[in-house]
Amino acid sequence: MKITTHRKIDPALCGRPLSVTQGKSRVTFLALESMAADDTGLVHGGFVFGLADYAAMICVNHPNVVLGGAEVKFLKPVKVNDTLIANAVLEQSEGKKRMVRVTVKNSEQKVFEGNFICFVPARHVLS
Predict the structure, then answer these.
(1) How far, in Å, CA of 115 to CA of 121, rounded?
(2) Phi, psi (deg, nearest 5) at residue 2
(3) What pLDDT shows up at residue 49?
(4) Residue 69, class by beta-carbon neighbours within 10 Å (0-12 exposed, 13-18 middle, 19+ buried)?
(5) Is the predicted pLDDT of residue 96 greater than 90, yes or no?
(6) pLDDT band of 108, cuts 50, 70, 90
(7) Which domains, ranges and CATH numbers included, belong to the chain?
(8) CA-to-CA distance for 47 and 40, rounded, in angstroms?
(9) Residues 14-64: pLDDT tens digits?
(10) For 43, how many CA atoms within 13 A lie in the half-sphere containing its CB?
(11) ∠ CA 94-68-119, rounded to 5°
C-alpha cells in the first residue's frame, strides 16, 4: 500500500516503514548515538514517542491526518544501537476521529505502548 501521509519524514529520526496495509503499519527504527540523553547511552523518550506517532500516522494513512492526543507508557529503557519495531493497529474510526493502538518492541521485549487519538480533517491543518 502506498503511504499518502507524512511523506517528508526523515527515517533516521522517526523510523522506516516495513509494511503498511489497511488499518495497520509496522515501522523499524535504529536508536542513534545522537539520540542519547546521557553518557550511559540512554535514548531520550521523545525519539521512541516519535517512532510510535509516525507508525500511528501511516496506519491511518490519510494526507491530512494529525495527532490530537495520546496516552502512553514507557515500559523499558531504550539504549543507543537498539533496533525497535513499532506495530500500529487502527482500533476505532468515528467520523474524523481515529483510535490507534501502538506497541514498540526491542526484540521480543515491549518497551512502549500507547493509544493515539488521530483526526482526519477535511483540509490540511495549515491550509
Answers:
(1) 19
(2) -75, 135
(3) 98
(4) exposed
(5) yes
(6) confident
(7) 11-119 (3.10.129.10)
(8) 16
(9) 999 999 999 999 999 999 999 999 999 999 999 999 999 999 999 999 999
(10) 28
(11) 35
Residue pair 59/18 in contact by the 8 Å Cβ criterion: no
Half-sphere CA count of 85, side-chain side, radius 13 A: 10
Q: Which residue has the cell 510510535?
A: 52
Per DSSP, the three-state class of 78 is coil
**Residue where the block lists cell 522506516:** 16
Q: How distant, in Å, are the alpha carbons of 8, 33, 76, 78, 94 from that of 11?
A: 9, 15, 22, 18, 30
C-alpha cell at 53: 506517532
Q: Which grid cell is 26?
A: 509496522
Of the pLDDT bands very low, low, confident and very high (cuts 50, 70, 90), residue 1 is confident
What does the block give as the cell for 2? Answer: 502506498
Q: Which of 110, 108, 98, 112 is nearest to 59 (CA)?
A: 98
What mean pLDDT do residues 89-100 have? Answer: 98
